[in-house]
Specification:
The complex is a heterodimer. Chain A is an alpha+beta fold. In chain A, 31% of the residues lie in helices and 19% in strands. In chain A, strands 11, 12, 13, 14, 15, 16 and 17 form a seven-stranded mixed beta sheet that branches. A four-stranded mixed beta sheet of chain A has the order 1-10-9-8. In chain A, helix 10 runs antiparallel to helix 12. The longest helix of chain A is centred in the N-terminal third of the chain and has 25 residues. By secondary structure, chain B is an all-alpha fold. Chain B has a single domain, classed as MetI-like (MetI-like fold, Orthogonal Bundle), CATH 1.10.3720. Chain B starts with a helix and ends in a 7-residue tail after the last helix. The longest helix of chain B has 36 residues. The chains are: A alpha+beta, B mainly alpha. Chains A and B meet through helix 1, helix 8 and helix 14 of A and helix 2, helix 4, helix 6, helix 9 and helix 12 of B.
């Protein structure tokens, strides 16, 4: 039966539907236009001093001692302040909660003088006792702080955390009086003052903590907007999960004159493309990162909103040295030398990131990265032949493990092709979900794994220490007595030049032994509205919100 | 009818219990855990975190205490958002998904049935082929394509709406369209198909023979049995619409439950995943029941049994 056999022509019904459609369409359009924003949030923000910024993800908590993520640290940095801050220009330590300090001649005893006008957002004065309380809190095993090891340079800190001493007064921190704090460290650390600007060292308000639970009880409700007490340039106004976090200028902050923004709104837009669309629609002043596929467009067409900066991170491949043939350093180095890193960064990031021929990224004041290796296919082939795989013959089938992401996938494919072409070896690709990827890396159940490391503070030790024998972040099975000894020496050396040299020696050894193959250094790539002035991101997650201002556009 | 409903409710309890049990143990089989991070956490710290939540106890004991809390309506703490409970997260995010889903459902129903009817009126004319072609396109076009497309046109080019967010009334338009159009396409095709079946039946011919105006034939006699296929589809669809769409919520950055659910699975936030699964199961069971009841009410040839 054909359809037309049943066709009929009801003039009334047909025209009724058509007429109603004719009526509805303009109505719907009028409604749509009426709802459209007349002024974008960015324009309103410029007038009212409200910065709208993409924070990348929903924060897990706002407790400086129990969080370890970058989104968390961005918000916490607006709400709390440590003894020191980091100058975003020079990257040197500058006064914050402490107005001044003295360092003993041997570099192991620090005396901090807190400012008299330092205040918590509830009006209480910020005292040296608050800092002692806070250090004790993060070193309390029950708190299960992810960054528990950050204060380990302090005398007795490790012993207290590991339960060897119970008496906290034996730990090298002491309130001499309300406004004088003394900290003793085990060996001189050239970067100790900037380390204090990391959020693990931020003070928390003792009475607020105790009002919502025990001193060392994790995850209590003191972090909620109605309870939060901070000492930073902004106060927590609103935490609407999944929508945004709003912080407002703290009028009682000691340096309030230097704070120009009235509010900052943090949006947890997870996908870089969503962030980019919100930026284009005038909903965000700043979004970071720029989706890789949009980099060259912004570089060429919109340089007025595209910005880059140092980011203290390295992208690398791990090799599982417990699996032959990766137990042979010649094979590992061959793989490293055969990679054409310039082609890689040009292909994936339109050349906006730089190839890594060493492990420690640029950005450390006083330490410039020097290439340890290069792109040397001839030597790579020789090394591989020496190891018993001439032209890649007999090389077992290895896999590159990476977590789901277009970027990781593209990078792995490029490496796969380079190794096939230059060395004649075939590796496969293995894409897994994030948790599976972490689990397999931790159990050394992989051949080659993509990896990245972002430094918490600006010192190369941060990077080199990940590869210490048996370290939890090593995840390659690699071990070198010589390397471990160098790390020890680095920690004990106060003289800057000697220390840089030891660091360079360790780095050279690591990259030539090649349990890790550095591919490129991360950098910041972000979109920023021209109305934002004095936005100066540092190479770490640390942010300096003072000085930032918005100018209304003409 | 009340006995029928009571029996159906009782029948669904074992199903729900089975879903909870399977889900509880399957989740624990997945590699990783709620506290794994890229930065290494020492075993002792990890053990303390697990002890804090009772995750160090044997699995059957955890299962029993979970069931115990569940009977009190307590879905437990979230592991990924340690200062919030699963109940709080659902309370915060479910209303958003419900609202989005209702708008989507409204669009799906109004557009779907209208288009289905229009296409029905003059089969094989442009009035049929254009809307049905559009519906086919709507089914084929996934939301992750349609959403960005709508943003591009109505937000970035025309500037009528925000590209993301869930604050103003205008923020509802694009996500609801993205969500609704896909289902509208299905409903349009099902309505058209259903009506075309019905229109050939004897009782329609009888109605026409009696000289009933065509709009009454359609509206009174044909529509009721004609939308039965669409209604059967609507049950599971409504549950899906109202509990949130991961894609639409991600593309438009809407703080709904769908996004939380998928992220929770990636984060191995056991309690949050389980809590949302229970909620979804209950909603699907309820909607299926409603559809079955609705079908009997619309179709006199069916009976409650």
């Amino acid at each position: 039966m054909t359809e037309s056999a049943n066709s009929f022509h009801p003039p009334l019904a047909g025209s009724l539907f058509l007429r109603s459609a004719q009526l509805l369409l303009p109505l719907a359009l009028a409604f749509a236009v009426g709802c459209g924003p007349s002024e974008t949030p960015v324009e309103t923000g410029n007038r009212e001093g409200i910065l709208h910024i993409n924070n990348g993800a929903e924060v897990q908590s706002l407790d400086p001692h129990t969080t370890s993520g970058v989104p968390e640290s961005h918000v916490i940095g607006a709400l709390l302040e440590g003894l020191t801050a980091v100058d975003p220009e020079t990257l040197e330590a500058i006064p914050a909660a402490a107005r001044d300090w003295e360092i003993s001649d041997d570099g192991t005893a620090y005396t901090f003088f807190l400012r008299e006008d330092g205040a918590w957002s509830n009006g209480d004065p910020v005292t040296a006792h608050d800092f002692v309380f806070s250090l004790r809190r993060i070193l309390s095993p029950n708190l299960a702080a992810p960054y528990y090891y950050m204060p380990f340079p302090v005398v007795g800190a490790r012993e207290y955390y590991e339960g060897e001493i119970d008496d906290f007064s034996q730990v090298g921190i002491r309130a001499v009086d309300d406004l004088t704090l003394e900290i003793r460290i085990r060996y001189p650390l050239p970067y100790f003052l900037t380390l204090l600007a990391h959020n693990t060292w931020y003070p928390v308000h003792p009475d607020t903590i105790l009002a919502h639970g025990l001193m060392d009880e994790p995850n209590t409700r003191w972090v909620r907007p109605e309870n939060f007490v901070g000492n930073g340039p902004f106060t927590l106004q609103r935490w609407a999960t999944g929508r945004r976090i709003e912080v407002r200028r703290n009028p009682d902050y000691w340096d309030a004159d230097r704070v120009h923004l009235n509010e900052i709104h943090f949006y947890p837009l997870q996908h870089p493309l969503s962030g980019e669309r919100a930026f284009r629609a005038g909903q965000l002043h700043i979004t970071d990162p720029v989706p890789a596929e949009r980099i060259s467009y912004y570089q060429n067409e919109r340089p007025d909103v595209f910005a880059t900066g140092d980011y203290f991170g390295t992208y690398y491949f791990r090799l599982n040295v417990t699996r032959p043939p990766f137990d042979d350093p010649r094979v590992r180095l061959a793989l490293s030398l055969a990679l054409d890193r310039e082609t890689l960064v040009n292909n994936i990031y339109a050349g906006a990131r730089s190839a890594a021929y060493s492990f420690v990224p640029p950005g450390v004041p006083g330490y410039e990265p020097k290439p340890v290796i290069g792109h040397d296919v001839r030597r790579a082939r020789e090394l591989l032949a020496d190891a018993g795989f001439p032209d890649g013959q007999g090389f077992p089938a290895m896999q590159i493990l990476y977590n789901t992401s277009d970027e990781h996938s593209a990078i792995a494919q490029l490496a796969q092709e380079m190794w096939r072409r230059e060395l004649g070896i075939n590796v496969g690709l293995e894409n897994t979900e994030w948790q599976v990827y972490l689990d397999r890396m931790n159990r050394l159940d992989y051949d080659i794994a993509r990896s990245g490391w972002i430094g918490d503070y600006l010192d190369p030790f941060n990077f080199l220490n990940t590869m210490v024998t048996g370290g939890g972040n090593n995840r390659t099975g690699w071990s070198s007595g010589e390397y471990d000894a160098l790390l020890d020496d680095i920690q004990r050396t106060a003289d800057e030049e000697t220390r840089w040299q030891l660091i360079r020696d360790a780095e050279t050894l690591l990259v030539e032994e090649a349990p890790v193959l550095p591919l490129f250094f991360y950098n910041r790539m972000y979109l920023i509205d021209p109305a934002v002035q004095n936005w100066r991101p540092t190479p770490t997650a640390y942010r300096f919100y003072k000085d930032v201002r918005l100018t209304a556009e003409d | 009818m009340p006995t029928y409903i009571a029996r159906r409710v009782l029948e669904s309890l074992p199903v729900l219990f089975l879903v909870i049990t399977i889900c509880f143990f399957l989740l624990r089989l997945a590699p990783g855990g709620p506290f794994s991070q890229e930065v290494d956490i020492p075993a002792a710290t990890l053990a303390r975190m697990e002890a804090h939540y009772g995750l160090d106890r044997p699995l059957p004991a955890q299962y029993l205490s979970y069931l115990g809390n569940l009977t009190k309506g307590d879905l437990g703490p979230s592991y990924h958002y340690p200062t919030r409970t699963v109940n709080e997260i659902i309370r915060d995010h479910l209303p958003v998904s419900l609202e989005l889903g209702l708008w989507g459902l409204l669009i799906a129903l109004v557009i779907g049935i209208l288009v289905g009817l229009v296409a029905m009126i003059r089969p094989n004319s442009w009035l049929d082929s254009v809307p049905m072609g559009g519906a086919m396109l709507g089914i084929c076009l996934p939301t992750f394509v349609l959403g960005p497309l709508l943003i591009l046109v109505f937000s970035l080019w025309l500037g009528w709406f925000n590209a993301t967010g869930w604050n103003t009334a205008g923020d509802r338009v694009l996500p609801a369209l993205t969500l609704g159009l896909f289902f509208a396409a299905y409903i349009a095709r099902l309505t058209r198909g259903g009506l075309r079946e019905v229109i050939r039946q004897d009782f329609i011919r009888t109605a026409r023979a009696k000289g009933l105006p065509e709009h009454l034939v359609l509206g009174k006699h044909a529509l009721r049995p004609g939308i039965l296929p669409a209604l059967a589809f609507l049950g599971p669809a409504a549950a899906g619409l109202l509990t949130g769409s991961f894609v639409v919520e991600t593309v438009f950055h809407i703080p709904g439950l769908g996004r939380e659910f998928v992220n929770a699975a990636f984060n191995r936030d056991y309690t949050l995943v389980l809590g949302v699964v229970i909620l979804y199961s209950v909603m699907i069971l309820i909607f299926n029941l409603l559809v079955d009841v609705g079908q009997v009410l619309l179709n006199p040839r069916q009976r409650f049994e």
